[in-house]
C-alpha cells in the first residue's frame, strides 16, 4: 500500500465503462490509465492511456488475461492503485487476481460475495434486523408480486416481472416492494460509514426492461430519522462484512417503511452527481481504503444525471455537435439496436425537482438528433 497519496500519480481504472472514474481521477489530481469495454471519445480525452477490454454488458469483463492487460497498460509505471467499477460482480475472483499484482483500492472478492450474493445479503439482513424483501431461488407457484433478477446484475436492465420471460441461469426471485427508489452514497472504513448523501433514482422502462436505469438526482435533504436509520444499518453491515471505500446502497422508501434492496461495493452510477473539485471523492475513496481521515463534501443545490436511450435501431448514427453537460457520446457511424444508450446528460438547479425536470427536458431535446426517420 502506498504510504501517501501523491498528486499527479497514475491510477489504473478497470470497469465496463471507465469514463466517470476517469473524470473523478482527474478532479482528484491523478493521471487515469483506463481499461474498459468502450474506449469512447470522452474516456480517451480524459485518460492518459487507455485500452479496450474484451467482454459485454451482459456477462461483464472477460477475466482471461485481465491482469496481463493491466500490467501492459501500466507499462512500467507504478500506479497509486487499481480502482475498479462495474463489471466484476459476477466474477469477483478477478479482484483478488488483480490484488496479487497491484494495490487494489476497493473491496476484496470475499466482501463482494458477502453483499452481492442474494442469499448471503438476505441472511445478513435477517441476522441484523434490516428489512429486506423476501427472496427465493426456486420459482414461486404464484408469480404475482414477484420480480426476477440476475445475481450480480447491475443497472436495472436485468430486473423483470416474474413470468415476463423465460428463466435464466443465475436468476432469483424477489418480492416486489412499493415505494420510491432511494440510494445512499457512503464511504466505509471496514468498521463504520460516513454518509455522503442521498439520491432519488428513476427508471427508463422499455418493452424488455421495465426497471432499466434512467437517472438519478442528488437530494438536498433527506428525512433525519430515516437518514440516521440507514447510517446505523450500513455501519452494522460494514462491521460484519468489512466494506471499505466508496460504496452505495439502494433502498425502497414506501408505505411499509424502508427496505434495503442492494449494496454496491464500489463507486457507482451516482459518482457524477456527487463528485466535486472542492472535495474529490476518489481521493476520499483512497483515504478510506488506506485507513486515513475522510472528508465529507458540502453541497449547494442539486445535480441530476440521466441516460438517453434510442427507442429504435439506428444503422448509421449521425454526427452531432454535442452540447455541454453531456458525456458518454456515441460516435458517428455507430450501429445501434433499439434500447442502446446514446449519451449521458446532466443538469444542475437549486432544487432536486428542478434538476430532474431539466435533465429530462434536455434528453427530449437531444433525441431529435436521432429520431426515427431522421437523416
Automatic annotation (TrEMBL):
Example of a GO MF term:
metal ion binding
Q: Where is the ATP-grasp domain?
A: 242-290
Record keywords, A-Z? ATP-binding, Nucleotide-binding
Enumerate the InterPro entries for this protein. ATP-grasp (IPR011761), ATP-grasp_PylC-type (IPR003806), UCP016817_carboligase (IPR016677)
Q: Which domain of life is it from?
A: Bacteria
The protein in question is named ATP-grasp domain-containing protein
Q: What species was this sequence derived from? A: Paramesorhizobium deserti
